[in-house]
Write a structure and sequence with these properties.
195 residues
Length: 195
């Protein structure tokens, strides 16, 4: 097998695990919780591995990064929808937060499209921390239902992550994938101004 096919394969796997969770939940109800948690965890692990492997074998491309981001969006949307389907008691408190985060999630790509004509693909460190926190939250939601303190913590972390993504898009001198932080984007801007 060609090693360059591994990262796209992991991305495709993650894109399929989210809908599989939702299908299991719709079919089996609460009996699907262990399988949904396993699929959620497998998806998160594939998200970690695809980037590590792609960097190690030198196959990181802007297109791969964009597809990675799209797979992430589908995966997390399905994971959260699965939790809301199985745990309807979460809906009153979670849905306003989810809608707010979804709207915030749309701002960075819009800014990137306006500024650079390209979709945003920052993959900044705060977004990775948010993804890990979201993994914990959705797992707790699936296993036990409500988790108000964790839910608020993840919500605030998600807003901070999206704010940083927008700031990165506004500061970058030119489109770029894999910008680890706003500080890194500021350094790129300063380097361009003084070169």
């Amino acid at each position: 097998m060609n090693p360059r096919r591994i990262p796209p394969g992991l991305i495709a796997f993650r894109a399929l695990t989210g809908p599989a969770e939702l299908l299991l939940a719709a079919t089996l109800g609460l009996r699907a919780v262990p399988a949904c948690i396993a699929l959620l965890s497998a998806g998160v692990i594939s998200d970690i591995l695809d980037g590590v492997i792609a960097r190690r074998i030198g196959s990181v491309t802007p297109a791969l990064r964009r597809w990675d981001g799209r797979a992430d969006l589908l995966f997390w949307a399905c994971g959260v929808a699965t939790a809301l389907l199985l745990r309807p008691e979460l809906r009153p408190s979670a849905i306003p937060m989810i809608v707010t985060l979804a709207l915030a999630e749309a701002v960075a790509p819009a800014v990137s499209l306006v500024r650079f004509g390209e979709d945003a693909s920052t993959h900044h460190l705060l977004s990775k921390l948010f993804a890990l926190a979201l993994w914990l939250l959705v797992t707790v939601w699936l296993a036990a239902g409500r988790a108000p303190v964790l839910q608020w913590t993840v919500f605030i972390l998600g807003l901070a992550s999206q704010a940083e993504a927008v700031a990165i898009m506004l500061v970058l001198p030119a489109w770029r994938a894999d910008v680890p932080s706003l500080w890194f984007a500021l350094r790129l801007r300063l380097a361009q101004q003084f070169s």
